[in-house]
Amino acid sequence: MNIHKQSTIGVIGAAGQTGVAVLKSLLSKGVQVRAVIRHESQKEKLPENIETIVANNSDWNALACAIEGLESVYYIPPVFSKQEVAFGKNVIAVTQKHKVRLVYHSVMHSNTPTMPHHWNKYQVEQLIKKSTIDKWTIVQPAMYSQTPLSFLNADKTRIIAGFDMNKTFTPIDLVDLGEAVANILISDRHHQKVYELAGNEKLTLSKMIEIIRQTTGKDIKPVRLPSLIVAIGAAVKLRTQAVLMIKTMFDHYNKNGFTGESKDLIGLIEREPTSFRQTVERELALYCIQ
Q1: Would you state the pLDDT for residue 2?
Q2: Phi then psi dihedrals of residue 51, to 5 deg
Q3: Record: fold of 9-142+174-198+258-274
Q4: pLDDT recorded at residue 285
Q5: How far, in Å, CA of 290 to CA of 281, rounded?
Q6: Where's the NmrA-like domain (predicted)?
Q7: Contact call for residues 255 and 194 (beta carbons, < 8 A)
Q8: What's CA 187's distance to the chain center, in Å?
Q9: Considering only CA atoms, which of 52, 65, 58 is closest in space to residue 89?
Q10: What residues of the chain score a pLDDT lower than 50?
Q11: Global pTM?
Q12: Residue 151 has what pLDDT?
């Protein structure tokens, strides 16, 4: 059974790549949306002509106003935030009080203490499960297929990584993620469920680089550097001080890779996941690597 499309669905953390993907998918399904962002300047990142409210995750009253009248909300926490658990408590509290359905954007293998940003999400997951919210869903995405493209250096001749490039990943395309989440949000069949969302290809970063090289026709070289060096660069790019969080993620990838199962994703989008090659072909213009 689908939720009535006249009901408004909110996205907290709407201005990032994940939020925009979810908004676009909801809009394509004719759903009314409300984008909750942290700064007024983030409006320029959003699709045009949608309702927008500015609210900081640390401001309980602002969050309460932002979700007033919503049917459901999708909460995407800030990337690598040391305040993630505190922010999560605020979102849980306001959705609980206003009886708004909560869908939480976590991460695959959240129960991994050696990766603090995963462990923070796991703690929020447990708080949701212990809350009095009846209607909640947790999604746990794998690494995005777009992520290796972000490893490209400025002149688009090298992909720099801080881990073993022969470890295996099961990347998920952001468009597939947006569609899966939108389908969860417009249906009432997903309450109190946890979904692991991964693609169905097992790829090493070396293989992904080869696909990018074939697709672009560029001689893109793989370069491995110490995890700390790459983490510092990533932190600067992401405008975060969480260098050690990023380093521990790379160190985990170096030992374990990052793989999951695709059955939940396939069940939610009712088709085969987008291949990594298809993602690269679509993203060429966005990343200016033609």
Answers
A1: 62
A2: -65, 130
A3: Rossmann fold (3.40.50)
A4: 64
A5: 10
A6: 6-258
A7: no
A8: 20
A9: 58
A10: 290
A11: 0.94
A12: 85
pLDDT digits (tens, 9 = 90+) for 216-238: 888 999 999 999 999 999 999 88
Q: How far is CA 278 from CA 73, 147, 182, 211, 287, in A?
A: 30, 14, 21, 10, 14
Distance CA 216, CA 210 (A): 10
Q: Which residues contact 264 (CB under 8 A, 6 or more apart)?
A: 195, 196, 197
Place of tokens 């993203």: 283
pLDDT at 133: 96
Q: Where are the domains of the chain?
A: 9-142+174-198+258-274
